[in-house]
Amino acid sequence: MDCIKVWPQYLIPQHSLSKLMYWLTRIQFKPWKNQLIKQVVNHYNVELNQAERECAEEYVSFNDFFTRHLKQSARTWNLNESSILSPVDGAISQIGKLDANDIIQAKGKTYTLDTLLANDTDSIAKLSNGYFTTLYLSPRDYHRIHMPVRGKLIKSIYVPGDLFAVNNATVRNVDNLFARNERFISIFETDLGLMAQIMVGAIFVGSMETVWLGQITPPYTRQLIIKEYKDKPVILEQGQEFGHFNMGSTVILMFEKDKLNWLDKFKAGDAIEVGQELGKVNS
After folding, report:
1. Does residue 106 share a domain with residue 178?
2. Cα separation values, 168 from 32, 115, 138, Å
3. Is residue 29 located within the same domain as residue 120?
4. Are residues 227 and 94 in the same domain?
5. Fewer CB under 10 Å: which end of the chain, C or N?
6. Are 191 and 146 within one domain?
7. Which strand ranges, in their side-by-side order, compose the sheet holding 144-146?
8. DSSP one-letter code for 71
9. Could you tell me which residues are beta bridge partners of residue 102?
10. 46, 248 Cβ separation under 8 angstroms
């Protein structure tokens, strides 16, 4: 059944459909956007009472609703230097350690750090044998991404690629999924050494933004784009907003080896909230 669900994704025009979705979700015609928001709220049981704006009518478009801000009281932030916080609301797809450069994608399926980081040799050398977690954002989740620790941005890498879905069926069946999909890699210097926070695109999710660059895609490009920030440092505090998806997808978070331990209570499939403690810094 998984194969039946997945194989059409190889045939459809992934980027063209994502461009269409980008346009549809920005329509401001009130009957359209109000009905669409209400359908999603009801179908996915979205807790709109946690948002700063609780009524569908208050949003100018569906994307405005999808990228909504939460009330300050909606989440508990455990801000401190000894904790690694979840950068998103979502579900833990995988969490653990790298086996050298191998990363778990699903049970019995791995991909490599080299391909995920587009062969960025400096980052690969430091993150090998390190810690990772893959966090999936569903349509019901809050779609803004925050900083798990304080960090100084040193490099960003935009990697063009496919836009396969990132649901469970696709993760189980498409080899090297996260390394073949479009993604935006941000490399930070932190008190824990190097940290990578990676936004992975997906079908209908081909639009990503960060607080320092604004909208990254669309437009789409076939070129690898590397930016370094030596002369114009970007420093983000723990808990500060990092960026957001226009529609939902996946965030991969990575740290150097021996720097932390994930909390034992977490396993694949567990729900997680932004600001919740995911791990502890090694003393």
Report:
1. yes
2. 30, 21, 11
3. no
4. yes
5. C
6. yes
7. 144-146, 241-245, 208-210, 214-217
8. P
9. 99, 112
10. no
Indicate whether 34 and 55 sit together in one domain. Answer: yes
**277-281 sheet: strands from edge to edge:** 83-85, 277-281, 260-262
This prediction has a pTM of: 0.93
Q: Is the distance from CB of 200 to CB of 176 less than 8 angstroms?
A: no
Same domain assignment for residues 165 and 140: yes
| Domain shared by 111 and 58, yes or no | no
Residue 221: closest CA among 164, 158, 163, 166? 158
pLDDT tens digits along 236-264 = 999 999 999 887 689 999 999 999 999 99
Element (H, E) at 94: strand 90-97
Rounded distance, CA 79 to CA 16, Å? 41
- Asked if 154 and 194 count as a contact pair (C-beta separation under 8 A), the reply is no
Structure tokens at 104: 């778990």
Amino acid letter, residue 65: F
Residues forming the active site: 89, 146, 249
In a domain, 54, yes or no: yes
Q: Which domain holds residue 53?
A: 2-66
* pLDDT tens, residue by residue, 51-108: 999 999 999 999 999 999 999 899 999 899 999 999 999 999 999 999 999 999 998 8
Secondary structure class of 117 (helix, strand, coil): coil
